[in-house]
Amino acid sequence: MPSLFDSVERTDNPSSPSHRRATNQDQRRWRSRVNTQELDARVEDIDELLAGVRFSDPYRWLEGASDDVRRWQDEQEKRVEQYLAPWPHTNALRESVARHSTPRFAELPEWAAGLWFRKVSSEDSEGVRVVASSEPLGPGRVLFDTIENNETRPPHVSWIAPSPNGSTLALGVCFDGSEQNTIRLIDVVSGHELPDPPTQVLMDHWTCGVAWLPDSSGFYFSAIEGEATAFDQKIFFHRRYDVARTTEVEIPEPEAPDYRVVTVAPDGRYAILLEGIPRPRPTAIAALDEPGTVEEARGESPAETPIWRPFVRGFDGSVAGHPVGDEYIAMVTDRWSPRGRVVGISLDCSESASDPTEWRSVVPPSEAVIQSVQPVGNCLFVTEMVGTYARIRIVSLDGELLGEVPLPDRGAVGVPPFAMLGAVRRTHPTDLFLSFTSLTQSWVRYRYVIATGELEALDQPAATIENAVVEDRWATASDGAQVPYHLVHRADVSLSTVQPVLISGYGGFNTPWVPQYPGPIAAFVEAGGVFVHTHLRGGSDLGFDWWQQGRMQQKQNSFNDVYAVAEDLITSGVSTPELMSLTGGSNGGLLAGAAITQRPDLWRAVVPRVPLLDLLGACRDAYGRMVISQEYADPEDPDEVRRLAGFSPYQLVRKSVRYPAVYVVAGATDPRCPPWHARKFVARMLSVGGERPVLLRIWDDSGHGAANNREIAIASDTEWLAFVMRELGMQPASEVPLSC
């Protein structure tokens, strides 16, 4: 099909007047082909009532799964296809996206009893094999093959966890992209599946899969009962010796609704209950070497019926780490040490564990932001961010500085975004294994040999951005805060002339937006665009205070920060609003939605991905209410609800506003940010009209992203990037293979 651009003047400079005329004519022609009456969704007289505050909710019906909802959604899919069909560069863009599509998080091999376990992606299919080998990345024996398991619908392997004695491999499989998974158990010697695994459903991989006892006789795991959005999470113990059985473990009442996981000390003496995704705390502890007579009489082990004692409770901060000997060695962030410190908390004296004055100081606070502490042998490896870039210091158990790991460049180390994801300790006994990435190079896995101080690369980057440069900048927010950000562009792209820009950000839930490889967005840089990686308040990029300054009553700061970055790019001559685009996923999708409705003047195109867009409606289910209460507002307080509505994009859509072009993408099986957020927001945007497109794509068998198969991920990323590049008048780089 010929391009709509064929009949208008073309130019290689997207900032030229002729480019802007061409793009605007293109939009008018596209809109003239669509019957706008078909775009309007049914309006119903329904109100949202939250804490006594009433709001109009005319598109509530789009939260359902009726035939009418499906028909409306299918119409939106046709509109996306109509919009993209005339653009002749989709295939070239797809090839570029595929080259750069690398995992967002690097997975290190798991060590157990002299064997290494890891997932290996098939080069010629969607399949994944789980293998056991004698070397970290060496050739191995296949224990689980997703294609052999289900040829027509290979599952996603969410996590793997070998038993300490190396005899059994536990893994989680997900079939629909939702991230909800069930446990399979594999006999390592024979490669056969073992009978009687637990039947419970795990919410996702955030609770580390399973936590084995050191003697490999069983494991703890967290699972949900009922619908994922109800988030009724419980702790279970699965016993493997004697007769296999699964028992629910009674645990103390949580301090607040949140994720919970049980970990076990390497010597098997203690089980520790960790709760909290954005603010983890080890709230309870149980001695596993003190069996009770009642349990013994029933044939139950202490692991099945632990007697819990309070541990760190009522602490206004984060405490996350690992049991080491008689102490819990933890990274702590709070208002007294906002950039973090490392402490030792006695495991034997739980009565004083909640008193920070009783904690032993191991690493005092500094200007570095501590991300994690990892014990290996008699050393502690403290991963930090210094000026947003990673550093790893090596200290003794007494806190003596022993040196640093010689990282290869400025970038990021593979630390879980939430401390709970690294709560279960499965490390090599003598060497540190780590992964490293930068804004121009994908993940590489390394072994740091403690005895020699050498850093050995175990593999090569799967993708790079050739001839790219990174510039570090700071923007001044409306309240005077200095917001760091990075520019990534080809060396031959001059910033003395305005350029097309794509900004990405997150800014939430006490997780850092580390400077890592942008994956498919590298195709935008390859095509000559400028990618902007931001460090917004709400994240932990600059510590505990940075999170506090961008959450709850201060949440608007997150949005103001990205507006400050955009305005700084305009003021400095890097770009203009006609060449500015923005994207973000999940909480970053909320950021993108807020930017559409609060500052539509700054953007040509905005792409919210798997977003939260109706923050009031989210409070109607348990998971959504938990998220809102953790980060945004108190849904029980009328004043808080009104403040919440002030940045809830669905409630902010107005008539007679010149909005940017909008493309919203969501997953049909996503329980965190259900697709109805995207449907309702797009319906309301369409109802107010406008000269620029408002598009929606919801992918089947797709969730929040972590369990999506590669083909869906590439198709989705190609589509939204095509939307951005078409709006900005760009086209992919020539189809010359990169050095990947």
Write the layout of secondary structure elements.
Layout: H1 17-32, E1 47-50, E2 53-56, H2 67-84, H3 90-100, E3 110-112, E4 115-121, E5 128-133, E6 141-145, H4 146-149, E7 156-162, E8 168-174, E9 182-187, E10 211-212, E11 218-225, E12 232-239, E13 245-249, E14 260-264, E15 270-275, E16 281-287, H5 293-298, E17 308-310, E18 317-324, E19 327-334, E20 341-346, E21 360-363, E22 369-376, E23 379-386, E24 389-396, E25 401-404, E26 412-413, E27 432-438, E28 441-449, E29 454-457, E30 468-476, E31 482-490, E32 501-504, H6 522-526, E33 530-534, H7 544-548, H8 556-571, E34 580-585, H9 587-598, E35 605-609, H10 622-631, H11 638-645, H12 649-652, E36 661-667, H13 676-687, E37 694-699, H14 710-727
Parallel strand pairs: 32-33, 32-34, 34-35, 35-36, 36-37
Antiparallel strand pairs: 1-2, 3-4, 4-5, 5-6, 7-8, 8-9, 10-11, 11-12, 12-13, 14-15, 15-16, 16-17, 18-19, 19-20, 20-21, 22-23, 23-24, 24-25, 26-27, 27-28, 28-29, 30-31, 31-33
Helix pairs in contact: 3-14
How many helices? The count is: 14
**N-to-C CA distance:** 32 Å
Low-pLDDT residue intervals, each spanning 5 or more residues: 1-12, 17-22, 32-37, 735-740
Q: What's the CATH topology label of the domain at 1-6 and 28-88 and 590-733?
A: Rossmann fold
Tell me about this structure.
The protein has 740 residues and is an alpha+beta fold. Among the domains are: 211 residues, Alpha/Beta hydrolase fold, catalytic domain (Rossmann fold, 3-Layer(aba) Sandwich), CATH 3.40.50.1820; 151 residues, Methylamine Dehydrogenase, Chain H, CATH 2.130.10.120; 111 residues, Rossmann fold (3-Layer(aba) Sandwich), CATH 3.40.50. It has 14 helices and 37 strands. The strands form nine sheets. Strands 30-31-33-32-34-35-36-37 form an eight-stranded mixed sheet, sandwiched between helices. A four-stranded antiparallel sheet has the order 3-4-5-6. The radius of gyration is 26 Å and the shape is globular.
